[in-house]
């Protein structure tokens, strides 16, 4: 990590607020968030992480749409998209050099006990080196998320499908993966379906078809997965969203975990069983993902 760039966003849900008045570039080493902020005390808020390649933000609109959807699911006021868009651009202008970076932007419910006054900010930093994960690949373990496939309709208050700040579980599963000598995780449902990774979407290839688990199972709609489908369509593959049974892993020809920062990481083992990785195919996919406009 270098020194991150931090942009505070005043009045982040005011639809009339203008970037010139709302955005403040601040010293990343100084404290800026109230210790009583509900984002900290309860993880009550939402975020997005966008990839930045050669100084250009990827999938800006798709991220902002998902941010708005998460806000609605948490019954937060809608974030002003122009403020967040401008905050990312302001941050990029202050990143050291151009290259691969990321921006995480956040909206919280604001101060505990106070009137509703959401907190908004963005921070940016250069990416770690993901070369190994993008080429040799990653080993995964299947871990239960503890819910059935119908969680979104049976228990919408569990907020599956919203990108909330409550990611302690998503970190805990990675520690469990480490204990099992694996790099990452694919979540499963208690009734035997595949879902997603803790910070990534799952894309499977069966012959000439790309498949990803449908969002109605309580998974995020990944912007990188959308790019992966575009890449597949461009190569004449069929693409589809559907529920995928765990047993179908036995017939998959390739698997990737896709996300904005790491892009496509091919899965080279599941629960200790090795999977072949087609290096050329994955290189083509990652080259496509890196080259995406908007
Ligand atoms: N699913 C979860 C739970 C995530 O946290 C993420 C990204 O952080 C994704 C999927 C992938 O989304 P994207 O490709 O838009 O980064």
UniProtKB/TrEMBL annotation:
Top-level taxon of the source organism: Bacteria
Query: Keywords of this protein's UniProt record, alphabetized?
Result: Lyase
Q: Which SUPFAM superfamilies match?
A: D-aminoacid aminotransferase-like PLP-dependent enzymes
Against Pfam families, the record matches this protein to: Aminotran_4
State the Gene Ontology terms under molecular function.
Answer: lyase activity
- Give the family this protein belongs to, as stated in its UniProt record: Belongs to the class-IV pyridoxal-phosphate-dependent aminotransferase family.
Which PANTHER family does this one have? AMINO-ACID AMINOTRANSFERASE, AMINODEOXYCHORISMATE LYASE
Protein name from the UniProt record: Aminodeoxychorismate lyase
């Amino acid at each position: 990590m270098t020194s991150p760039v931090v942009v505070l966003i005043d009045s982040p849900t005011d639809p009339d607020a203008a970037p010139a008045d709302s955005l403040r570039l601040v010293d990343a080493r100084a404290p800026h968030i109230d210790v009583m902020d509900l984002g900290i005390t309860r993880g009550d808020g939402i975020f997005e992480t966008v990839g930045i390649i050669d100084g250009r933000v990827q999938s800006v609109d798709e991220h902002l749409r998902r941010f708005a959807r998460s806000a609605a699911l948490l019954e937060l006021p809608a974030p002003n998209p122009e403020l967040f868009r401008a905050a990312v651009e302001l941050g990029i202008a202050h990143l050291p050099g151009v290259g691969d970076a990321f921006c995480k932007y956040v909206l919280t419910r604001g101060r505990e006990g106070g009137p509703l006054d959401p907190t908004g900010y963005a921070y940016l930093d250069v990416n770690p080196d993901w070369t190994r994960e993008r080429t040799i690949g990653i080993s995964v373990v299947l871990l239960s998320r503890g819910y059935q496939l119908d969680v979104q309709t049976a228990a919408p208050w569990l907020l599956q499908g919203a990108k909330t700040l409550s990611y302690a579980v998503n970190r805990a599963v990675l520690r469990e993966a480490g204990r099992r000598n694996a790099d990452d995780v694919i979540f499963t449902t208690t009734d035997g379906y595949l879902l997603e990774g803790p910070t990534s979407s799952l894309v499977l290839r069966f012959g000439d078809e790309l498949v990803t688990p449908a969002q109605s199972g309580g998974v995020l709609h990944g912007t990188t997965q959308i790019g992966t489908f575009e890449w597949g369509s461009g190569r004449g593959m069929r693409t589809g969203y559907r529920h995928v049974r765990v047993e179908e892993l036995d017939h998959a020809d390739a698997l990737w975990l896709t996300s904005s920062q790491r892009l496509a990481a091919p899965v080279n083992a599941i629960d200790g069983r090795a999977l072949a990785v087609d290096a050329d195919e994955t290189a083509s996919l990652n080259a496509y993902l890196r080259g995406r406009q908007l």
